[in-house]
Each structure stands twice: as C-alpha cells, then as structure tokens.
Amino acid sequence: MSEKKDPSVWEGFKAFLMRGNVVDLAVAVVIGAAFTNIVNAVVKGIINPVVGAIGTKNLDHYSSCLSSTCAGEQGIRILWGSVLGATLSFVITAAVVYFLMVLPMAKYLARLEARRKAKEDTQEVIEVTELEVLKEIRDALVAQRGSGHDRQ
Q: How far apart (Å, rounded) are the C-alpha atoms in residues 84 and 7?
C-alpha cells in the first residue's frame, strides 16, 4: 500500500518560480526599471529644454492657482507641468517599447507562423499525393486480379 505524497510547499514554490512566465516577468520588470532611467534622461535632457525654449526648462514649474493667492505654500496649486512631464515620459516609453520590442516580435512570430503553415500545407500535399498513389496501386492490383481470374 503506497501512499502518494502531496508535493511540499517548497516544491510547489520552486515549480512556480521555474515557470517561464515568472522569469520573463521578473526580467521585464528589471529591464523596465533600467529603461525608465533612459526615458527620464531623454525627457530631462531633450524634451524639457525644447519646452524650455517657450518657457521654463523644468516642467514642474508649470502650474495654475485655484485660489486667489498662491504665494509660497499658501493657496491651491495644480501642477499640470508635472502631469505633462509624466505623460511625455509614458508616451516615449510606450513608443519605444512598441517600435523596438512589440512590433519586431510580432513580425517575427508572423514569419514563424507563415513558415509553419507553409510546412503544414506541403505536408498535406505530400499526404494527398501518397493517398492518390496508393489508390492507383490498389486499382492496378484489382485490375490484375480481375484479369488473372479470367485466364483460369
């Protein structure tokens, strides 16, 4: 009487960590964090100076005041420049991820799918051809048997 043991919590945890999805996700998070620094540098070093040609170089200085006075810490200030800077960072990040990662991967996967489909179609043609040859052999054998019975 052998009892089947349930996998231990440690074994289940190891199996979870070894799944491809978890490792891929971890790599994506690390790469994304490193990439964020690049995007922030582009926004700070290129986008902000271009915007600065119109006004200030630091987008955080763009704001609007909702109350009658916004001197120092007083008043209600809406920091729309910070929102604009974050939006620009997001759009740049999304564009780079799409054009440098998603689009090439989609094209690569489409090519792989086309190759697989072409190989599958070729396999199907070969199978159909083999089937036709086998039918011809069968018909020839039937014809030979028929002519052989006539002689006897």
A: 51
What does the alpha-carbon distance between residue 26 and residue 47 come to, in Å, rounded to a whole number?
A: 30
Longest dimension (CA), the chain: 120
Q: Residue 31 is which amino acid?
A: I
Q: Is 42 exposed, middle or buried (0-12, 13-18, 19+ CB in 10 A)?
A: middle
Express each pLDDT in 84-117 by its tens digit: 878 877 887 788 778 877 888 889 989 988 988 8
In this prediction, residues 60-86 reach a mean pLDDT of: 79
Distance CA 45, CA 39 (A): 10
Q: Please report how the helices 80-97 and 20-42 are oriented relative to each other, as an axis angle in degrees rounded to 10.
A: 130
What pLDDT is attached to residue 97?
76
Q: Which residue has the tokens 């039918």?
A: 135
Q: How far apart are CA 62 and CA 39, in angstroms?
A: 20
User: How far is the C-alpha of 87 from the C-alpha of 60, rounded, in Å?
Assistant: 12
- Mean residue pLDDT across the chain: 78
pTM over 0.70: no
